[in-house]
Amino acid sequence: AAGTQTRDLSAVAVALGPGSFTGLRIGLGFTKGLATTLSIPLLGIPTLAVLAAAQPHFDGRLIAILQAGRGRLCAQRFTWDAGGWAPAGEAER
Q: Considering the entire predicted model, what is its pTM?
C-alpha cells in the first residue's frame, strides 16, 4: 500500500517485549529472516519504549502500560529527555 519494495529498506526494527510470547516469536523470526536475507541491520526495541515514543511531550511523567498475556500487566515509567521519552527505571511486571 505504501509503494515500498524490500530493496528500499536500509534496516528493520522489531518489538522485543514484553508482550504475547507467540506474537514476539513470530515477529522476531520474521524480522531476523528479512534482515538476514537483505543483509541489513536488525534493531530490537522494547515494546513499552515503542508505546512511549508515540506519545506527545507534556510536563510530567509518562507510564506506559500493556497487557502481557494471561491477565498480566507490564508498566514502565518514562521522563522527557532531549526531545524524547527516556526510561526512568526498569519495566515492572
A: 0.82
